[in-house]
Design brief:
By secondary structure, the chain is α+β, with helices and mostly antiparallel strands. Helices cover 16% and strands 39% of the residues. The chain is built from 8 helices and 33 strands. The strands form 5 sheets. Strands 3-4-11-5-10-9 form a 6-stranded mixed β-barrel. A 5-stranded mixed beta sheet has the order 16-19-28-20-27. It is globular. 42% of the residues are buried.
Length: 496
């Protein structure tokens, strides 16, 4: 039997070789093998290791997990940030998590205006392309530069022959610089968070040579901004195109003063998540907001107020601290809240803002709000999701409406004030965004859309006090009037 099987296999192999000989002989072209590196052996081991790490990264089947620091509270931090490791050797950078822009950028070693220290008690760094053995400057002819030019995320600096950028944000700040290609180092979790592996992938990111506006201030300074938009220059798009990560990411930001949370490249799986489709062909994450309800009563707001166009619509933006409501919807919203509060909440006006003196729990004193989106998906807002606490006096607490009016425009922005304490899933592959209320200090199950199933990821907070056991909560920033904050708390990327 074995001999017969061996002869059969041998015959099959001979016939296969004859077939290949015929095919190759009749093929009109010559196939040649090219070396990835020159044959003179003048290649550093670091280059070989870097190349292998990139290849290994394409075989990843786990969930890429980023740490989260910061809090929405504008009196403490006013933003959520993460850390990324770039270059060889790897250097750690703290960057704001911003779904309102596309590009990951950090300050260059030659940056003018980039802060040198931070009130967040984090160590700031600048990126030096000459100090990384795996870095290269992106040229104007590079494919990524062409893609960036098409989406207005890049331009060609013909004088220096490199791919450049200039960004202006909604808070009046700005930055400019050039693109480099280098390694992004990250951890992956598979099955259980205790089983992690280190890997890396080559990405294109910005190296800023100038910063202006709020980006120059030191009190809440970070090294740069991590844009999670869906254009080709975003890291999520780059990694998904390489097969390193799925085209979906999720976050869950803790709403208390300790802050932190979860940020993963993957889909957080939770049974009660509701999804609403993204509005197509928009530069931001736009949703169709259809109506607003207060205490179950739909407000008398014309649906056209929420329609999406070049200068109006509803945007999900983690780079905005508070939240903003279209001007024609704002007064009906505030009036409905004021009409619905209990007797323990006394309406007062403070510097033009609608505030309340409250002598009971705000959960008992204020109504529930529902933002109703297309796809029969409602986002429920607790009082702490639309109010901002002010100073207290005795048994009374001061609370103000934290959702602000978009003066002069019909843009609604869902910032960290309403996004906190919720799982938010950006499912770019299926062009939808999902959410559900959640305790973001609890573990979450994350799917990477692979055969490995789900991984468990724990919520936590970046330790920003390496030399002290104190926390940001123990040393709050000086309180500033609520009306003064709104100048710099919107961080949507508005033009280039």
């Amino acid at each position: 039997m074995a001999a017969t099987l061996f002869r059969a296999v041998a015959v099959t192999v001979i016939l296969l070789l004859q077939f290949l000989t015929v095919v190759l002989c009749s093929f009109p072209a010559t196939l040649t093998l090219e070396r990835a590196f020159p044959s003179n052996h003048n290649v550093q081991l670091s280059q070989l290791r870097a190349r292998d790490r990139v290849r290994h990264g394409r075989m990843l089947s786990g969930v890429i997990d980023f740490p989260v620091g910061g809090t929405f509270n504008p009196y403490l931090v006013g933003l959520y940030f993460t850390s990324v490791k770039l270059g060889t050797p790897a250097t750690e950078f703290y960057v704001q998590i911003d779904t309102g822009s596309d590009v990951l950028w950090v300050g260059c070693n030659s940056c003018s205006g980039c802060p040198q220290s931070s009130g967040l008690k984090i160590q700031l760094h600048t990126f030096n392309p000459q100090s990384s053995s795996t870095a290269s400057v992106v040229s104007c002819s590079d494919k990524m530069c062409t893609l960036g030019i098409n989406t207005q995320d890049a331009s060609c600096d013909s004088q220096n022959k490199r791919c450049a950028y200039t960004f202006q944000y909604g808070d009046g700040s700005g930055t400019s610089g050039y693109y480099v290609s280098d390694l992004l180092h990250f951890d992956t979790a598979a099955g259980n968070q205790s089983v992690t592996s280190n890997s890396s992938a080559s990405i294109v990111f910005g190296c800023s040579t100038s910063a202006s506006g709020v980006l120059q201030k030191t009190d809440r300074a970070v090294d740069g901004i991590f844009g999670f938009g869906q254009q080709e220059m975003s890291v999520i798009s780059q990694l998904s195109s390489q097969g390193v990560a799925p085209k979906v990411f999720s976050h869950c930001f803790k709403g208390d003063d300790t802050g932190g949370g979860v940020l993963v490249l993957g889909e957080i799986v939770e049974p009660n998540i509701v999804y609403s489709p993204l509005v197509q062909n928009q530069p931001h994450y736009n949703l169709n907001l259809e109506s607003i309800s207060v205490s179950g009563q739909t407000l008398p707001i014309d649906q056209s107020v929420f329609a999406t166009s070049s200068n109006q619509g509803t945007i999900v933006d983690s780079g905005t601290t508070l939240a903003y409501l279209a001007q024609d919807a704002y007064d009906p919203f505030v009036n409905a809240i004021t009409s619905a509060v209990s007797q323990s909440a006394t309406p007062v006006s403070s510097q033009g803002e609608q505030c309340y003196t409250v002598t009971s729990s705000i959960t008992d004193a204020f109504p529930q709000v529902s933002l109703n989106f297309a796809g029969n998906a409602s986002m429920i807002l607790r009082p702490q999701d639309y109010l901002l606490q002010q100073n207290s006096a005795g048994d009374a607490q001061g609370w103000c409406i934290g959702i602000q009016k978009s003066d002069g425009q019909d843009i609604t922005v869902l910032g960290d004030l309403v996004l906190k304490d919720k799982i938010i899933v950006y499912d770019l592959a299926n062009q939808r965004i999902g959410w559900v209320q959640y305790d973001c200090s609890m573990p979450v199950s994350v799917s990477s859309n692979t055969s490995t199933g789900t991984a468990s990821v724990n919520g936590g907070s970046i330790d920003v006090n390496n030399n002290s056991s104190s926390s940001l909560r123990n040393e709050p920033f000086k309180l500033i009037p609520i009306s003064m904050m709104f100048v710099f708390l919107v961080h949507i990327y508005i033009n280039h």
